[in-house]
Write a structure and sequence with these properties.
The protein has 103 residues and is an all-beta fold. 0% of the residues lie in helices and 43% in strands.
Length: 103
């Protein structure tokens, strides 16, 4: 619950953050729900990030949007949210070519 999502150029939905049923915050890892040509969900997989990638802190109720760049590259922006104590005013960029976060 409370996860952010954005439609992405890969033909799917990028999901980020949120909490589980016990209101425990999920790690800030992006997940991609790919869709078939008929629109049905076919695959859910965690987006691989470089091991040295700085990740944003866990959050819920944030925003997410995607932007298509040149040469089939794309990026997503995660912004705001709530960490369980405070409202967040951060903006993080997820560069999907190669995968990595930047604050």
């Amino acid at each position: 619950d409370g996860a952010a999502a954005a439609v992405v150029p890969l033909g799917g939905l990028l999901v980020f953050g949120g909490v589980d049923q016990a209101f425990e915050f999920q790690e800030a890892e992006p997940w991609l729900l790919k869709a078939s040509t008929h629109g049905a969900a076919t695959e859910l997989r965690q987006v691989a990030l470089r091991p040295d990638t700085k990740r944003p802190p866990p959050r819920a109720c944030g925003g997410l949007c995607a932007s298509v760049g040149a040469a089939a590259s794309w990026e997503a922006f995660a912004f705001g949210g709530f960490d369980g104590h405070y409202d967040l005013d951060e903006l993080w960029r997820l560069d999907m070519t190669p995968c990595g976060f930047a604050s």
